Amino acid sequence: MQMLPVKEVCVESFDEAVRAIEAGATRIELCENLSVGGTTPSYGTIRKCKEKLNVPVMVMIRPRGGNFTYTADEFDIMKDDILKCRELKADGIVLGLLNELGEIDEIRTRQLVRIAGNMQVTFHKAIDVAKDILDCVEILKKTGVKRILSSGGEKTASDGQDILNKMIKLAAPDMTVIVAGKVTWENFAEISERIPSAEYHGRRLVPF
After folding, report:
1. Does residue 192 lie within any of the structural domains?
2. Angstrom distance (rounded) from CA 148 to CA 131
3. Can you tell me whether residue 140 is helix, strand or coil?
4. Which of 20, 46, 84, 86 is most buried, taking the most CB atoms under 10 A from its CB?
5. What's the total number of domains in the chain?
């Protein structure tokens, strides 16, 4: 029997998370400041979501908006936030680090995956601004990352369809590609047919 795909909805608050689940979300990506692509939510919000929600909660680990090349101080903040997520028993974390050449920051990514312990790690859409997306998939296989969130280097999943389908094949069976980029409850059937994956992500993936 084929399992239904995961519908991961990104939210900015506990209330939004509750409403998204009621509307059909099967996993939550918890953020703040979605206007800049998402930053790390408050510890209180993470705690309340873990106490009250009945679906997995993935927490954004991002100290600021902007690019994905972080200073030593910002990297320390990320490490501390991951440790707090472990304490709060988050199901997973979502992060993305690039170096100044636009490549995956493999060393730092490995460090954060180790700190995450048993939490699942998703590498987010930082990959979409990297120099070579398919090469990045091969690099991420070596880091312990379990998922890659991507729109195939384009603004929408539809535009990135060809790259996404290549990524999905390349990542299997070690990693899952979460299809993202303007995937909504209105176009989900069409997108999932053209880009078959086990997981999809969006702000409007369910009507809440």
Report:
1. yes
2. 16
3. helix
4. 20
5. 1
Please, which residues have CB within 8 angstroms of residue 11's CB and are 6 or more apart in sequence? 17, 20, 28, 29, 30, 31
Asked whether residue 207 is domain-assigned, the answer is no
Domain harbouring 103, CATH code: 3.20.20.380
With DSSP H G I counted as helix, E B as strand and the rest as coil, what are the percentages for the chain, rounded to 5?
40, 20, 45
User: What is the mean pLDDT of the segment spanning 157-173?
Assistant: 97
8: left (phi over 0), alpha (psi -120 to 50) or beta: beta
| 142, 114 contact by CB (below 8 A) | no
Share of the chain above pLDDT 70, in %: 99
Q: Which domain holds residue 78?
A: 6-202
Position 3 scores a pLDDT of 82
Helix (H, G, I), strand (E, B) or coil at 32: strand
Residue 111 lies in a domain: yes
**Which is nearest to 164 in space by CA: 178, 145, 144, 185?**
178
Domain membership of residue 208 (yes or no) is no
Q: What is the pLDDT of residues 121-150, one digit of tens each?
A: 999 999 999 999 999 999 999 999 999 999
